Amino acid sequence: MIKLNYINNPFPRAIAIAGAGVMARMFIKAFSQVRPQPQIKLWSRNISNAVNIARKNNHVKIVPIDILSQDIDVVILATPSTTYRTIMQSISSTLDTQSVIVTLSNAITIAQIESCTQNPVVKVIPTIAHELNRGVSVIVSGARADETAVATVHAMMQAISKPIIVPESDSRAVSNLAGSGLAIAAEFASLCVAANEAATSSLDRNMLDSIIVETFRAIAALHQDGRSLEEIVAQTAVQGGITEAAISILRRDGSGIINEMMLETFRRQAILQMQSVF
What we know:
Elements: E1 14-18, H1 22-34, E2 39-43, H2 47-56, E3 60-62, E4 74-77, H3 84-91, E5 100-103, H4 110-114, E6 121-125, E7 136-141, H5 147-158, E8 162-165, H6 171-178, H7 180-197, H8 205-224, H9 229-236, H10 242-275
Helix pairs in contact: 7-8
């Protein structure tokens, strides 16, 4: 549950982003759409990527890493977790004690990051859907992240997504639905289209893609209207009908595959966290 005092907190005054990859571009695009000229500092080892971002966003200022955190409310680490320690060491001299460090990686624990900083650390698991002000973002607070720090990050993510605050013990399961779920649902949709594409003669792949995407929109609308996922299935798959025949196979074989997939995400995350050198 989101505490009431996390609602309607002010958007951070100034944000720093380390990195110029997919997530950095997503944040800059998303923030730019919901806040006029947000104050953003950017640093990246890939200078050409950073320059390309700055050219398209005149409110983004490329800076050296040693002043990236100067006069900043939130520092977003949008780089591989293997670079975190070096980045933290480089920004430590100008990092305000109240600045919040935001990690985007499940490959490293919050405690590992806290081992090299006294600043509050908050984990955020975002998705590319935030570019369109859609999708759920997962927020996990570290041991030194007080209510003010968490509220600051919540306000930042509330502007571009539907944030949910969870304990770190639940973050993998929620990430499977919110973060990984975006790719898993898209892959499932793609497999459904591919399976039916060979049976059609008048529709191309783009049209079939648009049909299943609209189906996902319809599921969302029905759920928002008050129907549970189970009710949508029951009211669509008539007993003894064609759809029920397909659903019975999915239930028979699909649950095992889904469980295996989910267990693999927990296993892979545990391996990455054990292997991480920090």
